[in-house]
Amino acid sequence: MDDIKSYVQQHKQRFLDELIELLKIPSVSADPAYSQDVIDTANAVKASLEKAGCDLVEICDTPGYPIVYGEKIIDKNLPTVLVYGHYDVQPPDPMDLWTSPPFEPVIKTTELHPEGAIFARGACDDKGQMYMHVKALEYMVRTNTLPCNVKFMIEGEEEVGSKSLGWFVERNHEKLANDVILISDTGMISNQQPSITTGLRGLSYVEVEVTGPNRDLHSGLYGGAVANPINILAKMIASMHDENNHITIPGFYDKVQELSQEERAEMAKAPFDLDKYKKALDLNDIYGEKGYVTNERNSIRPTLDVNGIWGGYTGEGAKTVIASKAYAKISMRLVPNQDWEEITELFTKHFEAIAPSGVTVKVKPHHGGQGYVTPTDSIGYQAAARAYEDSFGVKPIPVRSGGSIPIVALFEKELKSKTIMMGFGLDSDAIHSPNEHFGIFNYLKGIETIPLFYKYFVELSK
Amino acid sequence: MDDIKSYVQQHKQRFLDELIELLKIPSVSADPAYSQDVIDTANAVKASLEKAGCDLVEICDTPGYPIVYGEKIIDKNLPTVLVYGHYDVQPPDPMDLWTSPPFEPVIKTTELHPEGAIFARGACDDKGQMYMHVKALEYMVRTNTLPCNVKFMIEGEEEVGSKSLGWFVERNHEKLANDVILISDTGMISNQQPSITTGLRGLSYVEVEVTGPNRDLHSGLYGGAVANPINILAKMIASMHDENNHITIPGFYDKVQELSQEERAEMAKAPFDLDKYKKALDLNDIYGEKGYVTNERNSIRPTLDVNGIWGGYTGEGAKTVIASKAYAKISMRLVPNQDWEEITELFTKHFEAIAPSGVTVKVKPHHGGQGYVTPTDSIGYQAAARAYEDSFGVKPIPVRSGGSIPIVALFEKELKSKTIMMGFGLDSDAIHSPNEHFGIFNYLKGIETIPLFYKYFVELSK
Question: In this protein, which residues make up the domain named Peptidase M20 dimerisation (chains A, B) (predicted)?
Fold first, then answer.
């Protein structure tokens, strides 16, 4: 398809300008301070879908942030592709580590992006990857090459657990009826070696609170005589991994799917350079669960990480205080067959059980999601593989990702269809970090590849 | 001495008003944002000493905040009392737990203070207790009953380690020459049972930093494969106490002075109600070092407490991030014979030694001070004991406090004189906590008792 290649080259600048406008709106769903910006972003997405050629576009109200729904139905007898994406972004902090303001997009070149990359929060996750689908639709509509029906469902709460999306999907089976779900919210190995994510980890995210004395105390007068909630919290967190970095929560591993030696050997084929990996992160060594290599630790194995901790005096200088309370945000990445709600319960029971007398603890479940695996023999996967091979000239490798898209499992349960994760980002794009960026090559390559997926999916569906 | 009692009654309202004015200035030495307020407070103290009758008052510059020096020399052949106090205060946070603004003093009654107490940061620690000495001087000067020479040395960095005070004392041996040092910066058992603090704990205060990856990472893509600095910090902190809550730093206890069974039996005589203690703090149980009771754990035993911890995402909602860095402020309370600089070194060496590969750690010593013991057979202690007995009608009990006044040991080393700690606060006064307060009874009783100390000290010195 040279048409798409030349179309992309012809409209390249406009495609970049449109994405940059979208990135300027700080749609941080985790922080209520940005709620109006989140709404504004939903409206911007709606307008872009209308311009791209959808026949019907709606802002669908939910208990939380709205979902933007759009569709172009050309023939009821043809297959339907449902595109999912999200228009909300992660909080930008720590702000001081950004080399340019997170919501003032700029194009800079990097070692991996010699053609330049757009630096902004959400550039890759997920505004940039979501917008590739909008532009792919524009191409197919304008050139009259859309081979099937298409529906868009773009949500605004992915970074905080997609609560409203679940609510919406459960109530709109018919509206969302489809033959395959297409998502670009993952990465690929490199610009030379594309890959398709076939597995995702689940997630259980909780916040814990440890309370000691009913007020902050002078550490001289009380130190040594009462339980210090920060020391206790540290002790409780530390006890959750044993000396082999196995998680100690009873029952945590009971349902974990162990991979066969063959599967692990297949995984090991993905190119990986440990020295480069360490160098990129300035690490003197890696760290993790005994008996597994890095690419297994961050994909097929469950984890427990503290994402945030706070308590006591954290200002300038010194304060000799024993805090009344200490807090932590803790998330567990789960693998297929681990049920996130069951894991959340196991965590809660365990955390309460190990709390020593002298303190009281509270566990507040935040959100979660199930893990997922895409069968590589499915039509959807085959269509995606051909699309990548055409546009990159290289066969994509199927990989299991450590990340979570909590609603993929929900889609299968509610909509009975498989999800194909066509990601075009790179691990080095710093999503969820300061200086998030998305390569111009990747953005345009995505727009090129997506119409090929439609073409092959329709062909293989016949 | 009914004169002093009636004088206090007669001027009670003015004594309260003057202290309240002083408490309105937020002299938080730990936070540079308040630096001008700290200076303003020094000037206010200078003016109060001049008004009270000092012949000479100076604002003495130091590398840090100034020291207010005042003196009234009536006869070179008479003994000299050096009064020490501090005009700086602890940071007020957490602000939201204050029932009235920390720097807008109000008088409220409490169960222990039926005559009312002044609620404000610094009310007890140490503006209120320091100002008792100013008013006691005023009385002795106006009634011409000052029986000896008096010097005042009021500093502005006690809450951050008194660095400049050490600098000042070392350079002013002659100016500060004295026969006894008098400090009111401690508490007593109750308004019915006065006590005199004869021992103080030393202090070593450090800040630690644990660094993992060079940037915040997505916990899904990297979780399980790299060391999480928060998890590691928790593990390191947890490892610093064993199952008996003994501190595990090698050499930490080597120089700790063990008390004899007799001394411990003497200590046990101090009235203590464990149920009341737990109830006052809403604790279901106490917690501490095996083999020692509460009153020993917080006085004759060294401790290690985390005073603050922070890292990762601590805002609203959820963020699935692995932080690049985690921090903690850690203080160790020390007992006589433990050298704070040596302990700081032991801590640093140990903390660096237990850091796993995969992270790097930094230890930044904040400040510290030595422990101290006042001999109960000294003239100073005897004079103080009689003064309390006269004004309270009850013999005071000598007690060891868990708190630290880092410079008391320095005074002995540099000025070769003993320090008497005549404290009038109560443990329940919430110093270093929200809603700090100081009983009106205690404030006025202090002003009454201090002139008696001068009287007896001069008599016993003859």
Answer: 199-357
